[in-house]
Amino acid sequence: MATISDHHRHHQQQPPPIMQRLRHHSLNSTQLMGLTTLIISGAILLILTGITITITLLSLIFFTPIIILTSPIWVPIGTLLFVLIAGFVSVCGSGLFVVFAVTWMYKYFKGLHPVGSDRVDYARSRIADTASHVKDYAWEYGGYFQGKVKDAAPGA
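^ Oleosin family protein, sequence as received from the core. Prediction below:
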């Protein structure tokens, strides 16, 4: 026979009512505010995107005849502006590179060890070693070739 305590325990093991489940899985106020802000911001951005695309297409439709009629003026002006701006940017870039290179060389020759100076020292030592080896090789085989020339032309 089931007693009252058994009946009470059996009642507690049943799943909670639907409202308690909803409360357990519901958002707290901070999460709700974040979700609301996200939805409102997304909607505003979507509306602004639509307006921007619409205005762009309408202005393209409206201004295309004017652009086509005045293109003999705009194409040379655009080309000239492009060349001038590209030249200005390249001159400024070259000037900055020269200033950087002169500053780096000044620091290097003053012994301040700028960034990359260890690589320059290593490359310089490798070049000097290679030049020394080439000189020795030329010395060694230069005499060999001179002897061969004398053998080929004994009267020379």
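Residues 113-151 form one domain.
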